[in-house]
Amino acid sequence: MNDFTLNAEVRSDLGKGASRRLRRLASLVPAVVYGGEKAPESISMLAKEVAKLLENEAAYSHIIELNVGGTKQNVVIKALQRHPAKGHVMHADFVRVVAGQKLTATVPVHFINEEAPAKKGGEISHVVADIEVSCLPKDLPEFIEVDLANAEIGSIIHLSDLKAPQGVEFVALAHGDDKAVANVHAPRVAPEAAEGAAE
User: Fold this and answer.
1) Inter-residue contact 152 to 185 (CB < 8 Å)
2) In terms of pTM, does the model score above 0.90?
């Protein structure tokens, strides 16, 4: 049913020291699974399997089939803790997916038609790379599209300017936070001035 699968084992050796040993000696990523009717579960996964899964951007916003010692459950990634310098995953949080029960997930943002404001001389700054959404599992989008076709120089695109897919709610907006998603500003250096400086 699912292209996104991950194998894991239950871990009983808990705590920061144990997590460090897992990462160092066994190349494992410690993680926790919670939500639904079941108790939270501490697990570990092969670091290389986690890295391979995350090569596909869609994994961040997709339902993942997690196989824990032969027992399969559907989960979404809730949070990832990465190494500050090397960027690899040091710890993961997964939330169980229950059909008919809303979940929150972080979904990547895709910006389209960026050439339109660029043609008018505008420079685009992406303020966010992903957005937290709340929806039923069946409505979970792979990404949120931000169309910049009509963006004018000097404009700021907010969450409220985006069209949420059917059945999807932006968590920040629901809490009254109309975040900026992108802005279009005039070039910092006028082209003529840049040419003069080059000469």
Assistant:
1) no
2) no
